[in-house]
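Two entries, shown back to back:
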Amino acid sequence: MDIAIAKGAAIFVSIHLNSNINPSFNWTEVWVDAEVTSTRAQSESLAGRVAQSQAPLLKNPNPVSLRMSEWDGKSGIPGVVYSGHDSPWTPEEEGKIYVLEHASDTRLMPAALSEVAHLSNATQESAFRDPAYLQQVADAISAAITQYLGQP
């Protein structure tokens, strides 16, 4: 985040791999900070593109909508999840994701945090050992970012 701020980046995308005690979890999720209203629409657009770019790569016929159907406070954008105090799914005790809060508040840049997959899922764990698959994931995220930055 500090590098993005120092370089005057137009956007901030943080890429992660998740885990869960339930090994059947097999989806992608992309988080945005719902409480930063000045960049919320742009962050949602960015996050939506990143989520949709990842969905076809998962070994699940409908990973994004499967996950989103479980959320009461969903964003309405497939694969996009809200971080914040009102979110039903808050990964941190205070309901905020540090990098999103600070990227958005400090620079007013659109920001998203992508949880590409769950390594606790045996299929995904195996896939992420394959360098060709890693390249596919990187290319998909890169294409989503390029598409977002190229929009009018």
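entry 2 starts here
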Amino acid sequence: MEMPRNERSPENPQILVVGQDGTALGGGGDEGSREIPVTEQVEQPAKVMRIGSMIKQLLEEVRAAPLDEASRVRLKEIHASSVKELEDGLAPELVEELERLSLPFTDEVVPSDAELRIAQAQLVGWLEGLFHGIQTTLFAQQMAARAQLEQMRRALPPGMSPEGDDEHMGGRSGGPYL
């Protein structure tokens, strides 16, 4: 049986293209539904930032020191609880993406140093991508707001713009010197 193209699955992941206002422009398959801006997909940004900083610091520590079996078991637990805590601060769309990308460790086997480093680095990379996406969206929103404000200023009749207010104050224009 062939799966429809617009269905999401591991073989057919959803790709979002984000516009200037932070909303998805297409590729989602649900044309009629309202898309959520990336900035609103992080429901608890402070929590996500704290956990992200902790995970990044842990990665640096794991790279710097050799790990014995007890520390690898502990780091495996920290990794699992960090992913769980991150999921609590994210919208369902981002939780699904995180779950697809971060495969859990098996209960029976203690992961090696390399496996732990890879898992931590992958999580740090995903979080940095998320933060860059948020920053890009905020920048695009600021630029769109500036453009809209400038367009509104140009639409004002002569003498109504903020620059025109200086002319009503004795004909003087502001400058670096009085």
